[in-house]
């Protein structure tokens, strides 16, 4: 029986077009989803759009459009991006869908019935951009305006009747939950940030608004709209057909294995979300991973700063797999990273064109010239062959551990190291000097091809389109991309023909 694995991206706020930060979260989640499928897991990968709130209402008004029409248009750009980024998502949730509204209202009703929600008055600083409330300690003055220290977004003073969630009641239960689930928040720096915030004291949380109408009405009071985060976070359940707890999807995939989020929405996912769920007697997710930002220069990308990096432009110039590889390799997962033309081009040339693409072409071209692309049945491995081939089986469990602990940095370092090993093996064995020794010649070619196959399997979650092209060398397809097969040192069929391969990545010629 297959194991189930549920992974999510944040649901993106469609008040503006997608940028590199959206692409990064989605590509990272896709990496994990593809690897777990390759490992034999039954994966459910969810992404989508968060379409309610004052920010959307104002953006639609500026465009003189009905909010739903506005959301339909912008949400489509995010849905189209899933195809452009070659994401393997299984569903795309929109919070304007009836299935989601049903789930959110159910959560509200449970919390209200349990006495976890009460009506009072709210006064304080609110960021429309972040859909978040901030204390004085979390704000600073920049250019005469009060802004959030975390996001840089401006805040405005709000006074209105509001429903509150008894977050203060859940301070100690949350600390107990973190203690019992040490890996709930990763990386450790984010966990420490959350623990510090919770230990400093939790205040009850405003969970409704009366000053705008674009959202899900509170079931018991139509004058109020559900606070966008109580609404939005429920998407992870509504995609599983909650509140039907007997539904196959819900029973198979909840609690979620991994929420991939940006660090700016950590508090909502690591404090408010588990508190809502614990209060509703629903199991919290197994892990929340807050990654860093993709910076433009040294600043977070934002529409207001006008420093948005468009992933579509980069893909158009350099190709999708090049962008996917760069974001996974060159951005230290968990930390902030940036992307520049120079660094991207260097990465393409050194890793993809020279290290991987050249290896594939050299070995196949040598086989074409010396064995007519024929895989011999006459092969005998020596100790050097066995040593390089066994790198994969020896590290099999370690590779799984890298993925299960979201240690992408160690994973990609292993891949790059094995590319180096494969290139070195082919050079050191000097098959061009072994033409009189057919047994050795055939064995070197076979071993080199096996090394290409193995490293391609590990590259598949990162550069899926290119990996599928390379697998065609061996007449293999997507169904043959199984992680377990890296243990097998004689997977490629003997006494068979392989196929030629074109240029995988064009080397970028730089003008001085």
Explain what the structure shows:
- The protein has 512 residues and is an alpha/beta fold.
- It starts with a strand and ends in a 41-residue tail after the last helix.
- Helices cover 46% and strands 16% of the residues.
- Helix 14 (383-394) runs parallel beside helix 17 and helix 16 (408-429) packs antiparallel against helix 17 (438-459).
- The chain has a domain at 341-487: Isoleucyl-tRNA Synthetase, Domain 1 (Orthogonal Bundle), CATH 1.10.730.10.
- It is elongated, with a radius of gyration of 26 Å.
- The protein has helices at 20-38, 54-62, 67-84, 98-113, 171-180, 188-199, 228-233, 235-238, 248-253, 266-279, 311-318, 320-330, 341-371, 383-394, 396-404, 408-429, 438-459, 464-471; strands at 4-12, 42-49, 91-94, 117-127, 132-134, 139-142, 145-148, 156-165, 185-186, 205-206, 208-209, 217-218, 221-226, 258-262, 288-291, 294-296, 299-300, 337-338.
- Strands 3-2-1-14-15-9 form a six-stranded parallel sheet, with helices on both faces.
């Amino acid at each position: 029986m297959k194991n189930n694995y549920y992974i999510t991206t944040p649901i993106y706020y469609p008040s503006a077009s997608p940028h590199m930060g959206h692409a990064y979260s989605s590509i990272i989640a896709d990496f994990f989803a593809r690897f777990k499928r390759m490992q034999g897991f039954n994966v459910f990968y969810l992404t989508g759009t968060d379409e309610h709130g004052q920010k959307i209402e104002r953006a639609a008004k500026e465009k003189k459009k009905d909010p739903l029409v506005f959301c339909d248009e912008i949400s489509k750009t995010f849905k189209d991006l899933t195809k452009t980024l070659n994401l393997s998502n299984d569903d795309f949730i929109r919070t304007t869908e009836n299935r989601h509204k049903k789930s959110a209202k159910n959560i509200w009703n449970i919390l209200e019935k349990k006495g976890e929600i009460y009506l009072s008055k709210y006064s304080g600083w609110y960021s429309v951009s972040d859909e978040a409330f901030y204390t004085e300690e979390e704000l600073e003055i920049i250019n005469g305006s009060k802004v959030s220290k975390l996001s840089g977004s401006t805040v405005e003073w709000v006074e209105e009747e509001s429903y509150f969630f008894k977050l203060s009641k859940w301070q100690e239960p949350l600390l107990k939950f973190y203690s019992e689930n040490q890996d709930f928040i990763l990386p450790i720096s984010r966990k420490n940030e959350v623990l510090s915030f919770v230990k400093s004291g939790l205040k009850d949380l405003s969970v409704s608004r009366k000053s705008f109408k674009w959202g899900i009405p509170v079931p018991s009071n139509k004058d109020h709209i559900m606070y966008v985060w109580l609404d939005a976070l429920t998407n992870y359940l509504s995609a599983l057909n909650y509140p039907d707890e007997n539904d196959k999807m819900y029973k198979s995939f909840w609690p979620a294995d991994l929420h991939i989020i940006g660090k700016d929405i950590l508090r909502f996912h690591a404090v408010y979300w588990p508190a809502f769920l614990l209060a509703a007697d629903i199991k919290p997710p197994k892990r929340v991973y807050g990654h860093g930002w993709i910076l433009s220069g040294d600043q977070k990308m934002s529409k207001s700063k006008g420093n948005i990096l468009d992933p579509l432009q980069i893909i158009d110039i350099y190709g999708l797999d090049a962008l996917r590889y760069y974001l996974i390799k060159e951005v230290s997962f968990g930390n902030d990273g940036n992307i520049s033309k120079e660094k991207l081009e260097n990465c393409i040339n050194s890793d993809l064109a020279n290290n991987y693409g050249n290896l594939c072409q050299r070995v196949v071209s040598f086989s074409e010239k010396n064995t007519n692309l024929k895989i011999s049945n006459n092969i005998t491995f020596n100790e050097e062959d066995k040593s390089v081939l066994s790198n994969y089986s020896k590290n099999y469990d370690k590779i799984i551990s890298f993925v299960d602990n979201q240690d992408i940095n160690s994973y990609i370092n292993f891949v790059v190291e094995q590319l180096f090993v494969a290139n070195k093996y082919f050079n050191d064995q000097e098959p061009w000097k072994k033409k009189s020794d057919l047994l050795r010649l055939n064995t070197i070619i076979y071993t080199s091809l096996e090394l290409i196959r193995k490293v391609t399997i590990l590259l598949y979650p990162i550069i899926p389109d290119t990996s599928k092209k390379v697998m065609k060398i061996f007449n293999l397809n997507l169904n043959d991309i199984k992680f377990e097969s890296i243990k097998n040192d004689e997977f490629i069929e003997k006494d068979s023909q392989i196929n030629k391969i074109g240029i995988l990545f064009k080397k970028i010629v730089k003008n001085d």
